[in-house]
Amino acid sequence: MTEPGTVLLTGPTRNLGRHAVLAMAGRPDGQRPDLLLVGRAGRDLTAVADEARALGARVHEIGCDLASLADVRTAAVTVQGLLAAGAVRPLRALVANAGIMSADTRRASSDGYEMTFAVNHLAHAQLVGDLLGSFTAPARVVLLGSNTYHANFWRKLLGVPEAEWADPVELARPATGDQSPGTATSGVAYSNAKLAILYYAHELQRRAGAGISVSVFEPGWMPGTALGRDAPKAFQSIGRALGRIPGVSTPERSGPLLAAMALDDKWAHLRDGAFVLKTKLTEVQPIAHDPERERRLWEATAELLERAAASH
Fold it and tell me: What number of CA atoms fall less than 13 Å from residue 37's CA on the CB side?
């Protein structure tokens, strides 16, 4: 077994992220990684860090608002400093767990980008890009995916919209004009962001080098979690009710599975954006493999990140 080293995880304070952190921290000596928890500074971040320490983990909290690319760049510098100082063991895994679904696509990040695309894709692209040279091989990048990018029977029945792909610069542009928060538009933005993560995973693997493996984890549908906290109250109530159905995914069940993706030998072979649905390696739909879109996303992402950096 590879020495577990250090795992960086974004979005550690609630639901899936919190349970992944506690699953990693609760591992036996020799299998327990050091933890870098990147999330919004405050009581929740402190609380989960303290819980992980109580289980025996060495933990560093890194306050960061993922809706601010300047914050993300600062967080990456902090990580590099901790690694250089030997405050944590070598960086072996980065888990890009944080995500939101903004109810209003007119809402912009501090850099002027549509919020769902900014947090789910751009923030993690910034963080991963800044830290690519800081990993110690063999290392893993685990991105959080979703099957919402394509429609199936159940998604159609529940009115979950599939992706409507456009040039990434357009996807990053906040909507204008009249829009009722919570309409299908926000669902399309979320599905677009999740399709972008698949495209990014494939292109990242081409550029990351042999020592870094890129995979995508789908935790299963978890209705009622904080992901939909901006959604209308009625939608949230329905989600909480559905979350009590036996067999539906929950953070308590899926958090340890995400921890396993970052640490277990079982998943050490995954590369090329391999997609795992809870515990099953799964083929993505043909639309999720498109080298031309993947190259364009990489180029456009670089443009958007550079534009944000130049404005500060």
Answer: 30
Residues 6+ away with beta carbon under 8 Å from 14: 44, 225, 226, 251
CA distance 94 to 90: 12
**CA-CA distance, 308 to 68, in Å (whole number)?**
9
CA–CA separation, 304 vs 112, rounded Å?
A: 10
Q: Is 269 exposed, middle or buried (0-12, 13-18, 19+ CB in 10 A)?
A: exposed
Residue with tokens 């299908």: 184
Rounded CA-CA distance 59/56 in Å is 9
Instruction: Report the distance separating Cα 312 and Cα 308, nearest Å.
Output: 7
Hey, what are 55's tokens?
């289980």
pLDDT digits (tens, 9 = 90+) for 91-137: 999 999 999 999 899 999 999 999 999 999 999 999 999 999 999 99
Which amino acid would we find at residue 177? G
pTM of the model: 0.91
Q: Are 127 and 96 contacting, i.e. CB atoms less than 8 angstroms apart?
A: yes
SS3 of residue 90 by DSSP: coil
Residue-wise burial string across 86-115, b where 16 or more C-beta atoms lie within 10 A, e elsewhere: eebbbbbbbbbbbbbbbbbbebbbbbebbb
Residue with tokens 């990140």: 305
